[in-house]
Structure formats: structure tokens, C-alpha cells
Automatic annotation (TrEMBL):
Coiled-coil boundaries: 19-90
The UniProt record lists the keyword Signal: no
GO molecular function, one term: protein kinase activity
A Pfam family hit: Pkinase
InterPro entries associated with the record: Kinase-like_dom_sf, Meiotic_Drive_Suppr_Kinase, Prot_kinase_dom, Tyr_kinase_AS
Domain of life: Eukaryota
PROSITE patterns xrefs: PROTEIN_KINASE_DOM, PROTEIN_KINASE_TYR
Domain Protein kinase stretches: 367-622
Region annotated Disordered, chain positions: 375-429
Annotated transmembrane regions: none
Protein name, UniProt field: Protein kinase domain-containing protein
Keywords from the UniProt entry: Coiled coil
């Protein structure tokens, strides 16, 4: 590539044009495949109606030719995709400096006023003693100025990521994962001695009172201790490791960590200026122009990331909603420093430079980060009531914010532990306490899955039947999600064993401290691990339609939440209703159906162009 910036830009535009041309060719070939499939279907109908063996033979010959044509078109489509992949791999931005000042384009989001960042009301084991401003911008600029401006070895891929309309979804975690992947590749070239890697959905196995150190050590543990481990392990969205040791923790939120403009927020002031009392009539959240409810959510986000940094024994972290980025740094005295917000839309762009600097800072910092010598307190927030702008479904009463308090009140009564709440239909949902021993947890190799948001899914036996069990500590977001699943399953009772697993039981365990749900153990594999056939596609769409007919929106349609079962009709089961919404909104149901078809399309299934219809959103407001 030529040295001049103008020639670099011209070559980048030329490569982008090649990629767009290949995308057009891929779409045309896909349309040809669809037309051929329609012809094949019409021929099959003709063959079934044809009374003459001779005519059927001729028609079958035409069908064979069409199937051959379809196979050739599929090969052509695969070749075009390979060609596009090779071009993307060869595409070169230029110098190290030019890579660092790329503009990061956040995922497209609909504009919604008053959206707060997702946060948990779970009590934290660790809170900072004090929170201060981290004036790190000069250090980032020095790091940027020292970048190589001559060698041209770094690819441009971050900005292009959000321009690929065929992506199945564009929410924050996928976007951050892509950026981290590019940054890891970049820093491995810059500082190869660091042995840099990153992990997503990182389970932090921490020692808790009454628990043990981790899932792997549960062979000799009691059932109660095992439940504590399965329900109590927090999950960091991303953890970066340096020299095989944890170095940085990333916590990703939905929205609400910055204003609509480019003005940065000084997030430390949300914590330090918040010392409200009911008689003052003012709140320090005014410094960011936000409500006390919004401020409390941000404080909980800060405390969550700080606790994860302590538990992972790291000194650096990042809090982001993909538009606004905050760098965190802590010491062993309990002091937490937070940078001013770095916005993705700012000019000049600084997101990649800031992240790369933070990795560099962690790499050269030889400090040992352990438990802080002191523990702080959660700031006092006056009138931090839930907002009317909550992005959760308003017609799903699982979101009742007083539920946790009422459950605890019911649980404190003497005798058999039982809590009750009113479901949306007016009936009471009773949570009976079941001894951990009666769940018959499998002590060796019992974890079915540990990848999803819901935590570990574990083998057990309840009422004499093999079950898949999920656990969550009472009063946490995950516990609310499990109770959402119970409500959803009760509304779908006629689908049990047909399109969804049977609900075997639910309640609390460990003396009412942990919520659990037990469903039928499914013998099958996740949809993402098998080839998608037309039979599987049809069954999955029928299953989703049946869920919608029960007045539910799944809320988290993904290949990992659909199981292909062996030797049964229908061939699929839909799982995990923790994000479900009680609604009969036809537009949202259609959007969810189109999202499922888009997943088939990206996974190599045979669906039409409807899957790419821009009228339907990828992210559903559940």
C-alpha cells in the first residue's frame, strides 16, 4: 500500500466497492436458489398428482436437473462468500496510528427516552471506600502519539462490522466481542510477549459463606454447597488475560451510560456527589442531568464492575454501553478511579486508543491486586423509585418491584417455608421450599450448560424424573427471570412435551435462600450445533407460533435456546423463557418470527429474503 493517506483512502474505498459487489452477487444467487426451490416444490406437487408412471418418470428427471442446478448455485454462493472472506482478511488500513484512531460505530438502536442501564439489585460483597476521577486522557494521548506511523500491517474491520446487514443481531455484547477480538489481534502484534486473550461470559468462582470454591470441587460437597455454587457465581461479560492471568474486566450494559450528545459524563460524580437525605430536596445526580432512579442504576453498575474486579483480582476494568466507554482503575486500599466518558461519536475518535492503552497499562503494571483492606458503603439515594420509562414489559407482572420484599416477608413466617405472589391472571404462585438433598444433584459431570445468562443448568432428579435444574439467589435479577419462566410455562401447559419441555417443579431451596426451576431433561442438541434442515426450520417456526398463540413473546430467540430432539415429532423444543413477555402484540410476534428466520439464514438454512426485511427490528423490547 502506498504511503500517502489519500492513496490509502482510495484503496479502502476500492476494497469496499469489491465487497459490496460480492454482497450483491451473493444476494442474486440466493434469490436464484429460492426460485429453483419453488420450482422443485411445484414439481413435487405435480408428481404427487400425476397418475401416469411414465409422466412421473419425466417429471422426476426434471426434478433431478433442478436439484443439480440448486447444488451448483449453492457451490457458487459458497465460493463468493469465500472470496469475500479473503478480501476482508487482506484488507489493510495502514499504520498502527491509523488503526488506533478508527471510528467505532455502535450498533443501531431506536431512540428511546429515559432508558436506564441494566443493573442488579443484588447486594455486593465489595464496595469502594472512595471513588475519584481518573485523569487518564493525557496518558492516552501520549500512548497514541508514540504509535508507529510507518509500518502498514493492521487490518480495518471494526467500523465495517456494523455495515454487514446479514448479521443475525447487533446488540452490544456481539459488538464489544468483535471490537475486543480486533484489539487483541492488534495488541498481540504490538506487544507479543503479553500472551493476550479474552473470554466472554466468564464465570467468577468466588468463595462465599456456606459455599465452596468452584464447580469442579463439588464431588465431595454437600447438596446445599453445590446449590450455592450453581446459583451464586457471578459472570463477567468479558475478561482479558495477560500472561495467563486475569488483567481487565469488561461489563457491558444496554444503554443509559451517557447523554444523546457528545458531552462526556464524569461518572465518578454520580457516586461521590450522591449523599441525599429526604430533607435536602436536592440530588447530586443533577450534575449529569439525570433522575435519582437513573443515578441509582448507574451506581449499581459501578459497584457491580468494582466487585468483579476484586473477585477476578485485577486492577483495571471497562464499563460500556457501546456508545460510552469508562476506564476503571482500583488499588488495594479500596480506592476506585473512573475516567471521563469516551463517546464513540466523538471527534477525533479515541475508543480504540483508550482500550489499547488500558491493555498496555495492565501489561506493564506488576502490582498484585488482592482483596481491598477496606470496604465502603452504597451511597444514599433519595426517592430512587423505578422509572415509568422502564424498558421491561409493562404487562408482565414479574417486573413488580415490591415482589422481593413481599417474598422475604412471607419467607420469614414460621412453619413450612412458602412464599406467594399474584400472577397476571390473578392466581397465586406459591414457592415451596424443597431440601437441596431432594433435588438429587449429580455430583460429577452434572453441569449441562454454563454459557447462558441464566447461569448453570444442572442434572438432577425430582419426583422420580430426570430434570434440568436452574438456580438463582432470591432477590436477584436471575431469580426474577426464573419466576418469569414459571409464569410462562404455566401459560403454555398445553405445549408441554410438544413444543416446550414439561415443567416438573419450582420453588426455593437452601432454607428459602435460592429459587429453582426444574424442567424435563431434553435428549438432543442445540440448533446451532446441527445442520438446519427444512423439517427443523418448519418445526421451529411452528413451535414459536404456538408460543405466540399462548400470548407470550419469547424475548431471547437464539439458536442456543432451541433444541433438536431425537426420534420425536415435532423435532424441536424451545427453551429458556427468562426474558419472556406476556403480550399478544402482533408486530412484536412477527418481528420475533423474522428474527428466527434470519438466524436460519445466517446458519445456512433455506429461507427467503423476508429474513432480511429491514421493517422488523432485530432486538425486541422485552
Amino acid at each position: 500500500m502506498a504511503d500517502s493517506g489519500g492513496n490509502s483512502e482510495e484503496q479502502i474505498r476500492s476494497v469496499d466497492d469489491q465487497i459490496r459487489g460480492l454482497d450483491d452477487q451473493i444476494r442474486r444467487v440466493h434469490e436464484q436458489i429460492r426460485l429453483v426451490e419453488e420450482k422443485i416444490e411445484r414439481l413435487e406437487e405435480e408428481i404427487n398428482r400425476c397418475p401416469s408412471d411414465e409422466e412421473r418418470k419425466l417429471l422426476r428427471g426434471k426434478e433431478a436437473l433442478l436439484r443439480g442446478e440448486k447444488a451448483q448455485l449453492r457451490d457458487e454462493k459458497a465460493q463468493l462468500r469465500d472470496e469475500k472472506s479473503q478480501i476482508l482478511q487482506r484488507r489493510d488500513l495502514g499504520t498502527e496510528y491509523e488503526w488506533l484512531v478508527q471510528k467505532v460505530v455502535p450498533p443501531t438502536r431506536s431512540s428511546r427516552a429515559g432508558v436506564y442501564p441494566s443493573s442488579s439489585s443484588h447486594a455486593r460483597m465489595w464496595l469502594p471506600v472512595r471513588v475519584e476521577h481518573w485523569d487518564v486522557m493525557n496518558e492516552i494521548e501520549e500512548f497514541l502519539e508514540s504509535a508507529d506511523r510507518r509500518r502498514r500491517v493492521f487490518r480495518m474491520a471494526v467500523t465495517a462490522f456494523t455495515q454487514d446487514t446479514r448479521l443475525e443481531e447487533k446488540h452490544e455484547n456481539h459488538h464489544i466481542a468483535f471490537i475486543l477480538g480486533e484489539m487483541v489481534s492488534f495488541m498481540q502484534k504490538k506487544e507479543p510477549q503479553c500472551n493476550l486473550h479474552f473470554k466472554s461470559e466468564f464465570i467468577i468462582l468466588s468463595k462465599r459463606k456456606g459455599g465452596n470454591d468452584g464447580i469442579g470441587s463439588s464431588e465431595g460437597a454437600s447438596s446445599s454447597a453445590m446449590v450455592d455454587v450453581y446459583s451464586g457465581s457471578p459472570r463477567a461479560d468479558f475478561v482479558i488475560t495477560l500472561r495467563e492471568k486475569n488483567a481487565l474486566v469488561f461489563e457491558v450494559k444496554n444503554e443509559g451510560l451517557g447523554s444523546d450528545g457528545d458531552d462526556p459524563w464524569f461518572l465518578h460524580r454520580v457516586w461521590t456527589d450522591c449523599s441525599c437525605t429526604s430533607g435536602e430536596g436536592r440530588c447530586g445526580f443533577a450534575v449529569c442531568g439525570i433522575t435519582p432512579s437513573h443515578g441509582e442504576k448507574i451506581i449499581r453498575c459501578i459497584s457491580q464492575l468494582y466487585e468483579y474486579m476484586v473477585l477476578c483480582k485485577v486492577g483495571y476494568g471497562v464499563l460500556t454501553d457501546a456508545r460510552n466507554w469508562y476506564l476503571f482503575k482500583r488499588d488495594n486500599d479500596g480506592c476506585l478511579k473512573i475516567s471521563a466518558g469516551i463517546t464513540a461519536s466523538a471527534e477525533p475518535p479515541r475508543v480504540l486508543a483508550a482500550l489499547s492503552y488500558l491493555v498496555h497499562a495492565a501489561a506493564v503494571d506488576n502490582s498484585e491486586f488482592g482483596d481491598p483492606t477496606g470496604n465502603g458503603q452504597f451511597p444514599l439515594v433519595h426517592e430512587a423509585a423505578p422509572s415509568e420509562h422502564s424498558d421491561e414489559s409493562s404487562d408482565d407482572d414479574i417486573n413488580d418491584r415490591t415482589f422481593t420484599a413481599r417474598v422475604r416477608q412471607n419467607m420469614s413466617s414460621s412453619g413450612k417455608r412458602r412464599s406467594e405472589r399474584h400472577s397476571s391472571g390473578g392466581a397465586q404462585l406459591a414457592l415451596e421450599d424443597v431440601p437441596a438433598e431432594d433435588l438429587n444433584l449429580k455430583k460429577a459431570g452434572g453441569v449441562i450448560s454454563s454459557e447462558g445468562w441464566s447461569g448453570c443448568v444442572v442434572n438432577g432428579r425430582l419426583h422420580g424424573q430426570l430434570v434440568a435444574l436452574k438456580f438463582a439467589h432470591l432477590g436477584t435479577e436471575r431469580a426474577e427471570a426464573l419466576l418469569k419462566e414459571v409464569v410462562a410455562y404455566t401459560k403454555m401447559e398445553k405445549l408441554w412435551g410438544v413444543f416446550v419441555p414439561r415443567l416438573i417443579g419450582y420453588g426455593t431451596t437452601n432454607n428459602g435462600r435460592v429459587v429453582f426451576i426444574a424442567t424435563e431433561l431434553i435428549d438432543g442438541v442445540e440448533l446451532g450445533e446441527v445442520a438446519v434442515t427444512r423439517e427443523v426450520e418448519t418445526a421451529a417456526l411452528e413451535a414459536l407460533a404456538a408460543v405466540h398463540a399462548c400470548g407470550l413473546l419469547h424475548g431471547d430467540v437464539s439458536l442456543s435456546n432451541i433444541m433438536v430432539v431425537w426420534g420425536k415429532k415435532p423435532t424441536v423444543r424451545i427453551l429458556d423463557f427468562g426474558f419472556s413477555c406476556i403480550t399478544s402484540n402482533k408486530k412484536l410476534q412477527e418481528a420475533e418470527r423474522v428474527r428466527l428466520k434470519r438466524l436460519f439464514f445466517t446458519h445456512g438454512g433455506a429461507v427467503g429474503e423476508e429474513a432480511n426485511d429491514a421493517r422488523y427490528p432485530c432486538i425486541l423490547p422485552c
